[in-house]
Amino acid sequence: MRIGIIGGGNVGTALGELFTTAGHDVVVGVRDMSRPRSQRTVPLLEAVSAEVVVLAVPFGVLPALLDGPVRDALAGTIVVDVTNPVQADWSPVALGEHRSAAQEIARL
Q1: d(CA 54, CA 15)
Q2: Which residues partner with 4 through β-bridges?
Q3: pLDDT tens across 39-85, in order?
Q4: Per-residue pLDDT for 2 more than 70?
Q5: Are 6 and 54 in contact (CB under 8 A)?
Q6: Where are the beta strands (DSSP E) in 7-103?
Q7: Which among 22, 102, 93, 101 is positioned nearest to 2, based on CA atoms?
């Protein structure tokens, strides 16, 4: 299976290695293609064309990421969210008692 991971940080890299070991074709979509990485990196829009796409970016990045062409390219795709609703200092994002991070991502 072709899996696209959005985000080349610690979580995205670890998941990419696990998926590759399991025999999947993995690409990692990143904004900055000039930074060297240990896995096969591609532009974001190429990664979202995979059969399954994993969101492995900071939660606060999602509104900008899921606005426009990336959101449109994800239509009909299986999306796995591994983000955590925390801020840069690891404090929780205030979602209120009637919203979850998954609901917020689905809304986006």
Answers
A1: 9
A2: 27, 53
A3: 788 988 899 999 999 999 988 889 998 888 888 999 899 999 998 88
A4: yes
A5: yes
A6: 25-30, 41-43, 52-55, 78-81
A7: 22
